[in-house]
Amino acid sequence: MSVTVKSKYEIIVVGSGINGMLMSLLLAKNGFDVCLLDSKNFDKNNINQFSGRSYSIIDSSIYMLENLGVWDYLLSKSQIINNVIVETRKLNEKYSNSFIKFNSVNISDKPMGYIVEERYFKESLYKEFKKLRNLDVYYNKKISKISRENNYNFLEIHNSDNIKCNLLIGADGKNSFVGKSFGINRIKYDFNQMSIVGAVKHEKSHFGNAFQIFYPGGPFAILPLKNNISSFVWTNKKDHMKKFQDFKALDYFYEIEKRFNGILGKISLTGETYSFPLFFNISESIIDKRLALIGEAANSIHPIAGQGLNLGLRDVATLSEVVTEAKIHGEDYGSVSVLERYKKWRSLDRLSVSFTTTLANSFFSGESRFLNSFRNSGMRLVNKSNLLKDTFCKEAMGANGDLPKIMKEKVYF
User: Which of 338, 297, 294, 300 is nearest to 316 (CA)?
Assistant: First the structure.
């Protein structure tokens, strides 16, 4: 990882979240001259602090992480998911009559997935960055303007030198400045919901069980971490959630405690807590001339299935394969004709996941008597059918679809 500022790169990635970091690493390992930019500061001394932020990682994503050489470390820090339990219940209802218990035992010798904390993700990737001389990483670099001329994008950096590149990749989130700079519109729908994300220490073992509990008003997800800690995602209507923005207040803790419902014994809050409103928010196009969007800059979906990062990683793997093969064959990897391959390859997956998560939220958040009866009957039917459960498991584990090579086989750099 160089410390020398250059004026030209083959590819610039904007946004140093997990998707942006992995995109930069993969492209650099494929031989591109890469720069990763972010407007935020980076304090490497705080990288190991526990925050509670974590991600569910499925089998196809693990293949990619293995190929990149970071999975062994992440595996040592991750929590295995043995079962995923989906159920509906009322607050203070001790047991649910309507539930589905998923595990992968019938279709694979591998678990349902793993939960990996964000801090370990970033630590492992930062270590890999240091090994690469063709990858420069700059934090605290705010882009003031992006312009395009001939075969280059020009980035004007606030209080710094300008940089140009053959291909610009936006990994800068659902309010992507990069996308806006190219005039790309977004399709947005307000779910009228808000999520609060945090973590708890608990008395009982979670045994590697993840829960998705549908209470009246919205879902409550429990994700197992190491050392008798679990993270949670509490989703409900905005008006209701605005009452609980003081995360140190007793009434907030009581609401969390009620939703854990004694499943894991006594609990206490730990780590950071944060909240955000929920929108269906996807980009009308994920490409332009010398531009590609990945992750939430391309698709911001409902967190109901915990698949947002895995969706973004498929963007990363697909785009890397497309532009690398184009370069090998002497093509202009930043041209629209090449980037259209990325757009076409990703179109079905991004639309189907966006549609499925939106539909699932509507189906499970509805509170009419008819819908409750239909939903509960359907869940009991699925739970009795190994065929249906195995089908859902394969989809959830990323075993279906046209995956890039790095997500399904050994790849050598």
Answer: 294
Strands in 301-381 per DSSP E? none
| φ, ψ of residue 137 in degrees (nearest 5) | -125, 125
Contact, 316 vs 292, CB < 8 A? no
Whether 11 and 316 have beta carbons less than 8 Å apart is answered as: no
**Average of pLDDT values for 98-104?**
84
Do the bridges between strand 34-37 and strand 135-138 make them parallel or antiparallel, or are there none, so unpaired? Answer: parallel
Rounded Cα distance between 63 and 17, Å, is 20
Per DSSP, the three-state class of 257 is helix
For residue 383, the model assigns a pLDDT of: 85
Tell me the C-alpha distance between 381 and 134, whole Å.
54
**Among the listed residues 69, 58, 85, 80, the one whose alpha carbon sits nearest the alpha carbon of residue 28:** 69
Of 124, 138, 165, which is closest to residue 2 (Cα–Cα)? Answer: 138
Percent of the chain past pLDDT 90, that is, above it, reads 64
In the prediction, which pLDDT does 265 show? 96
Nearest to 235 by CA among 213, 211, 202, 210: 213
Q: Which two tokens stand for residue 319?
A: 């785009």
**Minimal CA–CA distance to 192: which of 215, 157, 218, 166?**
218
CB 286 within 8 A of CB 341: no
Strand blocks (E) in 172-308: 186-202, 209-215, 218-225, 229-237, 267-283, 287-288, 291-293, 299-300
Q: Are 259 and 213 in contact (CB under 8 A)?
A: yes
Tell me the pLDDT band of 256, cut-offs 50, 70 and 90. very high
Sheet of 98-102, strands arranged across: 98-102, 83-88, 209-215, 218-225, 229-237, 186-202, 267-283, 299-300
pLDDT, tens digit (0-9, with 9 covering 90-100), for 318-375:
999 999 999 999 999 999 999 999 999 999 998 888 888 887 777 777 667 777 788 7
Burial 380-400 (b: 16+ CB within 10 A, else e): eebbeeeeebbebbebbbbbe
Separation of alpha carbons 338 and 343, rounded Å: 9
Within 10 angstroms of residue 107's Cβ, the number of other Cβ atoms is: 15
Q: How far apart are CA 211 and CA 100, in angstroms?
A: 10
